[in-house]
From TrEMBL, chains A, B:
It comes from the Bacteria. It comes from Sphingopyxis fribergensis. The keyword Heme does not apply. This is tRNA/rRNA methyltransferase SpoU. Keywords: Methyltransferase, S-adenosyl-L-methionine, Transferase. One of its GO terms (molecular function) is RNA methyltransferase activity. GO terms for cellular component: cytosol. The lineage of its organism: Bacteria, Pseudomonadati, Pseudomonadota, Alphaproteobacteria, Sphingomonadales. GO terms for biological process: tRNA nucleoside ribose methylation.
Amino acid sequence: MSAALPPVIVLVRPQLGENIGKAARAMLNFGLTELRLVTPRDGWPNPDAGPASAGADIVLAEAEVFGSLADAVADCTTIYATTVRKRGVMKPVLTPEAAAREVHASAGRSAYVFGAERSGLETDDVALAHAIVTVPINPEFASLNLAQAVILLAYEWSKGIALASPPEVPLDPPAPHAELEEFIQHLTRDLDASGYFVPPERTEATLRTLRTALTKTGWSHNDIRMMHGIITALGRTPRPR
Amino acid sequence: MSAALPPVIVLVRPQLGENIGKAARAMLNFGLTELRLVTPRDGWPNPDAGPASAGADIVLAEAEVFGSLADAVADCTTIYATTVRKRGVMKPVLTPEAAAREVHASAGRSAYVFGAERSGLETDDVALAHAIVTVPINPEFASLNLAQAVILLAYEWSKGIALASPPEVPLDPPAPHAELEEFIQHLTRDLDASGYFVPPERTEATLRTLRTALTKTGWSHNDIRMMHGIITALGRTPRPR
């Protein structure tokens, strides 16, 4: 039995209540119970979810709703964005198998993040993630729906709960996402004040690049505390140049 | 690339055309195309199958209908009966993973046989099989539908063929150590100038902690260039506080 926490399933902007129900059913079949919803289109609770869950009511009853993906994964240390499409984002790409191995070896909380039924995850959603999980699929017929993607990832994860090997616990585990987010906000404010974002129309792309670089650091709570201090120190004293 | 033939998918007494369509969709996602139907309840073709297949029409168009399971698997050398329920039948019980390995190693034709939506396979159906395939599932919530069982077996089979490798994304590799070193020197100089190293006798330990945090970032050449710019920007302009 893996001692690692089961992954949280996060559905970003899901459209149909029926699909939320099917995702809950897929989860519970493989022992996953924690569902988080980011701004579901038709609000929550949704009367169409229950019948589609085929009895996975406990998952729906305990589902939590968040206003943003960042909020939904605030307590997670490793975030996996599931997408079948190629992105212009420089992140490691894992199979469901490889991701499951990482989740079982992690000392923190992991999140599997899924996009909306038709459109999938936005670039900004993917930017939050540490890695991308892609289900290898027939390139001539790639038609995996939301619940199917959930079931494949849940199934791969469930294989690891039979494993007897204890997780490798890193000495200083990565900080929860909320701490990194706060640091990114701090840095962005200070950079903005110092005139870093020039020209302004490049700001969004620059921020995304910066976020990617900071997301892959694996910084712990203590690392991030130190980095706050560094930013503050660098801005504090005008230095002779 | 496995040289073995892909397995045939056999649905025994399927009830709803919609579920036949969903099974076809599940198959084609993972490169399986040969579907056989044993006495489908509502006959064949079934107008409900097409819409549910989400474009997997080729699988449906080429589906064959048989009067008995024995006829449907007449050309197959190894027959796998999928069931989640315990049977009083003395057959080897395999996971989808183990069955897929056997299929890839087989010189003959393999069949994955699935029962009707509600009732599953009859004892006489299972008696024809060489082995039973069971998806390990949450004992307190075992609610896998037909298409989900098909997709899990098709997915496991697909790992053995070429499409099972994730797309190679050119990641931004970590920079050579000298670049990181240069960055650490830059940061150290600027922090020193801003009075960060207080008290002085802690400087060495602080530098070691800082170096550890920066060494684990995995930053690329481009990341490090950006970080040089960030340090310079933060120190450039005295900001109102």
